[in-house]
Each structure stands twice: as C-alpha cells, then as structure tokens.
Design goal:
This protein is mainly α and about 200 residues long. It has one domain (about 1-195). About 80% of the residues lie in helices and about 0% in strands. It has 8 helices and no strands. Helix 4 (about 95-120) packs across helix 6. It is globular and about 55 Å long. About 35% of the residues are buried.
C-alpha cells in the first residue's frame, strides 16, 4: 500500500503545481497584467493532469478526491476567466474561434466536474460522515461544486438538478458547522443561488 500512497502523493503534487500556474494566470488577467505563461500552455497542463487522474488505474477514494477536484476547479475557473478576457478584446475571426473553443471546454469541463462531485457527495448523508472525511478532499470537492455553479452561463442550466443543489447546500452547511472556511463556501453558494434564481 505504500506505493499507492506514494503514487497519490505524486499526483497531488503535479496537480497542485498545474493549478498554481492556472491561478497565477487568473490573477494576472484579473489585474490586467500580462500572464507569464499563455492560456494554451496552462490549459494543456491542467487538462493533462485531469486526464492523468482519470486514467489512473487506482480506485477513486476520498484520498484521491482532492487532486481530481482541484484539477477540475482550476480548469473551470481558468476557462471562465479566459472568456472574460476574450470578451474585453476587439472582435475578430480568431477571437470567435478561441471563444467557441473555450466555451466548449467549459461546458464539457462543468459536466465532468459535476459528475465527480455527484459521485463524491453521493455517500455523504450526515454531519458525522462530513467529520470523518479528509478536510482537504472535502474542501476541494465543495470548491469544485461551487465552481461548477459559479461558471453557469445560463439560468436553468441542465448540469446540476435542484435536488443536487439542495444536497450540496446541506453538505456545505455541515462542513461550515465544522470548519470556518465552510462559512465562506456557504456565503458564496448562497450568492450564486440567488443570482441563478434557485
């Protein structure tokens, strides 16, 4: 089992590094600073990490969830910020092609991320279960869930059902009762729900 732990630790580190580059890129775009690395390069690295995680023959466990969720969350936020960035540029044919690519990547990424969130939260039915789960994994899964909702482009989005949103709100509430960062998640989730009309 030591080789499994070492393998998961290596995957976690690779995803954390790729996610760090994605967040650095987001931060630069949000502050109107030229990013150090191109969107295409960062998107390629984050996508490769997600593919590596999904192709990993090891069973998905809560120990593995933090890396998967972090990868998906970074990918969604990167796509959303790239769309905002493209919207600020003058229109051109190249812009149109890039925008379509990013929108498709975001759409498929949201579906894949929510499938992961659904699977991860499927077994969480009580406060006690939340208390037993690894903090980092649950934190990453909940942040990925919020990112899926945050990147919703249209009200009435079909990726997340109302029942799933209610379950997410319950789990976030249990998480918030245990850990302070959960209160920020609760506030952010409430704001998103209000904006989406849930």
């Amino acid at each position: 089992m030591d080789w499994l732990k070492a393998s998961l630790l290596m995957l976690d580190r690779v995803v954390a590094l790729a996610s760090g580059h994605a967040l650095e890129h987001l931060n630069a775009l949000q502050r109107n600073i030229q990013p150090n690395e191109s969107y295409d390069l960062i998107e390629e690295h984050v996508s490769a990490c997600i593919k590596m995680l999904l192709d990993n023959p090891q069973p998905s466990t809560w120990l593995h969830c933090d890396a998967i969720a972090l990868g998906f969350c970074s990918n969604l936020l990167l796509q959303q910020e790239q769309l905002y960035h493209l919207a600020r540029l003058p229109y051109s044919n190249l812009y149109h092609v890039q925008k379509e690519k990013v929108e498709l990547t975001l759409m498929f990424g949201r579906r894949m991320a929510w499938d992961m969130v659904r699977a991860a939260l499927g077994s969480v039915d009580s406060k006690e279960e939340v208390a037993r789960l690894p903090f980092a994994a649950l934190c990453c899964v909940l942040r990925a869930a919020i990112a899926v909702l945050e990147t919703c482009r249209l009200p009435g989005d079909e990726v997340v059902s109302k029942e799933e949103v209610k379950k997410l709100q319950r789990v976030v509430s249990w998480f918030a009762a245990r850990w302070g960062v959960g209160q920020q998640f609760e506030t952010k989730l409430a704001d998103i729900m209000r904006n989406l009309g849930y």
